[in-house]
Design brief:
This protein is mainly β. The protein has a domain of 52 residues. It contains two helices and three strands; from the N terminus they run αβαββ. It is elongated and about 80 Å long.
């Protein structure tokens, strides 16, 4: 995957229900679905497929916000005390 934009790897959509949307469309509006696995519109469970005006809302990335502590402005090592573990083993022959 070298050379690809990392944002495009997680391109996703959500279903934007139309004015007279069915319950199936309303039930998945909050979900972000990878574009490759997004359902076709009208949905298979749609009760009014001939009048469906649902659409997709596109997102560059389904992940929201910073995920790692360093990206959130936190310290990389959240444990403030010194390391108390011994480097050697418990046996007398261990170094």
């Amino acid at each position: 995957m070298a050379g690809r934009d990392p944002k495009l790897r997680f391109h996703c959509v959500s279903v934007l229900p139309g004015p007279a949307a069915c319950d199936a469309a309303r039930s998945i509006t909050a979900e972000k679905i990878l574009s490759k696995s997004a359902p076709l519109l009208p949905l298979a469970e749609c009760t009014t497929p001939g009048e469906c005006q649902c659409s997709y809302r596109k997102f560059d990335d389904r992940r929201a916000g910073p995920r790692r502590s360093g990206e959130r402005g936190m310290r990389q090592n959240p444990w403030p005390q010194r390391e108390r573990r011994r480097l050697g083993g418990r046996r007398g022959t261990d170094d």
